[in-house]
Amino acid sequence: MRSEPIAKPAGGSTDVEIAARIAAGDTQALAQLMRRYNQKLYRTARSILKDDAEAEDAVQEAFLLARRSIGGFRGDASLATWLVRIVVNEALGRARKRARSAEIIRMDGDIDLEGDVEASVDGETAEQPEASAVRAETRRLLERTIDTLPAAFRTVFVLRAVEELTVEETAMALGIPEATVRTRFFRARSLLRESLAREIDFAYEDAFAFAGERCDRIVAAVLARLDEDPARGA
Length: 234
What we know:
Among the domains are: 15-98, Rna Polymerase Sigma Factor, Chain: A (Orthogonal Bundle), CATH 1.10.1740.10; 129-204, Winged helix-like DNA-binding domain superfamily/Winged helix DNA-binding domain (Arc Repressor Mutant, subunit A, Orthogonal Bundle), CATH 1.10.10. The longest helix is centred in the C-terminal third of the chain and has 27 residues, at 178-204. The protein is mainly α. It has helices at residues 15-23, 27-49, 52-69, 79-98, 129-148, 151-162, 167-174, 178-204, 213-228.
């Protein structure tokens, strides 16, 4: 597999130069690196562990591991891909320890395609409070849905759809063939679409709900107006 080009972050330094600074003890460079990739690594770890706190711990440990070995970074892959690979290994190790009696998560094996999935859409907004609340609930629905995907599908989906890694970057980070990345990403999107369709079907009967406070308010308003003008009820 060909090497990825070395990206130049906003500061102008190449990945190799940043790695060298961190290896030499530059804590500011390390802090900048963490701020740049914290979200990417957290999302990756969370896709494997399905637990917020443990995902944070995995990211912390991954950065500590990266700090100890970054002197050997040569730029054969991007620094982002190199870090994702470290956090994937850390998260998988934690998942195995947590579930020794359960099925071990594998990134390179066959996946059971059976199982139900739910659905959602992501988003943050600066719109009106009601619209913001709807978007927040939709985001939570998407996160719950992604959590129901098979583990290997879930991680591929997060890296490709959420973090927008290329097929090549995802394959390199997870240590699987590019064809497998394409297959799992396609299947993950299909599962999510199917689940979203089910969620919409379930919501139809609740659309434009009229019961409860709204119904009571209209009844009360009509009766009040009749009391004010009895002739209206004649």
